[in-house]
Amino acid sequence: MIPTVFILAAGNSSRFGGNVKQLADINGEPLIRRTIRLVREFNPDIPIYIVTFRKELQFDDCLTINTVKQTGCVSQSILFTEPRWGRLNVFLVGDGVFYQDTLNEVLSTKEYTMFGKRGTAEKPPERFALVFSKKDRDSVIKTCIASYGLLGFRGYCLGCYPKILWLKQLELPLLLRKPRDVLVFNILQKIWNFYELPYNHIYLTDNTQDIDTPEDYEHVRASFQD
Fold first, then answer.
1. What is the pLDDT of residues 189-212, one digit of tens each?
2. CA-CA distances (angstroms) from residue 131 to 15, 89, 105?
3. CATH T-level assignment (fold) for domain 4-221
4. What are the distances in angstroms from CA 20 to CA 14, 52, 67, 94, 192?
5. pTM recorded for the entire structure
């Protein structure tokens, strides 16, 4: 079964100074073009959609899902693409620096699976890819709606990263700043616990990472020079 790949690039790159981080140079090629190349090296017949509102991220050799304006979080982007879902779907973060072995594993997966990395005291967990099949459609929609409804709105982001779909293991207390935020988080967490998230987790152990800030970018560049 050939998957349909969606590369999510509908954020505003605010922490990256407003520059289009998906076009940042990674070892001699733009980040998003690197991801496209690695997907096609796995299978050149895979259809690739770029989910974006930016004209500079719309390419002649890829399909485009134009969100018209930036989306508030990953779950909103995923819901926006629902009419284009196929029998097997792979969502990749557009600011992720992937490696071939990892991407091959993601693209070979047939089950409802989340790929990411465990968090540390300094950095919350990261999620880089989501895979689901047609039979998982209702669960995906339920999870997206629940996550966006609970924490997708600007007033309830509580300072966390906008990857709201992947909140289940996000160490939000590390990011909270005000007692009111802690109270709101505890209430939302109790509500969230009612939702069963049916996907598997695979924790990546390679250098896969994403670029949120200029400091992240410098760290990525240094990793290729080592």
1. 555 455 555 678 888 888 888 887
2. 27, 6, 11
3. Spore Coat Polysaccharide Biosynthesis Protein SpsA; Chain A (3.90.550)
4. 9, 11, 16, 11, 33
5. 0.79
